[in-house]
Amino acid sequence: MSYTTFDSNELEQFIQTKKIIHLISKLNIQDDFLYIEDKATFHNAFSGLDEAIRNVRGKRKIGDYIHDLMEESRKKLDDLHLRAGISKEYWHKATNGKIHPSKRKLLCLAVILKLSLEDTEKLLQIAGYSLATDLTNFEAILGFAIKKQIYSFYEIDEQLSKYGEKTIFSIE
Fold first, then answer.
1. Of all helices (H) and strands (E), which one includes residue 56?
2. Are 152 and 141 in contact (CB under 8 A)?
3. Residue 51 predicted with pLDDT over 50
4. Does some domain include residue 133?
């Protein structure tokens, strides 16, 4: 496996042109795979209930998807929370649907699990986020790193600091 490092000029252009939005728009993520909890709205107690139940059936919830990703990567929860600086309690609540993880924490998880850009976007979309919306420098830098398969916390944190962003271990 070849080792990739950050190219400052390429990263700067990536951020300035918001290239991640273009890359995300090219992905073919099936809508029927997604379950976004905030999208369900009811006009009265029973209006659209049958349709809402049909729409939820077979779709993923963020906690289930995080759990599956951790299982697929064969990472133990202890190792994950220590590497990400995130408490066991937080991830336990996230995987059990007690809390909704932030976009930043999900991006950190994507780096820890060494997800592809497409898998990262799936993870974000299941949680109701996207790298193609509300793009910050933090998100662009992590998107660049994931696209380039740069999963070194040290290198990512160095670039985050350079752009005045919080490092991976300091996110809330």
1. helix 49-56
2. no
3. no
4. yes
Number of separate domains in the chain: 1
**CB neighbour list of residue 111: distance below 8 Å, 6 or more residues apart:** 142, 145, 146, 151, 153, 156, 168
Among all chains, which residue has been given the structure tokens 């974000």? Answer: 124
In a domain, 19, yes or no: yes
DSSP 8-state assignment for residue 6: -
pLDDT above 50: residue 41: no
- Category of 74 on φ-ψ map: left (φ > 0), alpha (ψ -120 to 50) or beta: left
Q: What is the dihedral of CA 115, 121, 125, 128, to 10 degrees?
A: 90
The amino acid occupying position 137 is: N
Residue 106 lies in domain: 8-27+46-170
CB of 163 within 8 A of CB of 144?
A: no
The residue type of 46 is F
Q: Which pTM value belongs to this model?
A: 0.70
As given in the structure block, the two tokens for residue 70 are 């951790």
Vertex 116 angle, CA 153 and 9, to 5°? 60
Total length of the chain: 172
Q: Enumerate residues 6+ apart whose C-beta is below 8 A from 157.
A: 167, 168, 169
Specify the residue for token string 């659209």. Answer: 48
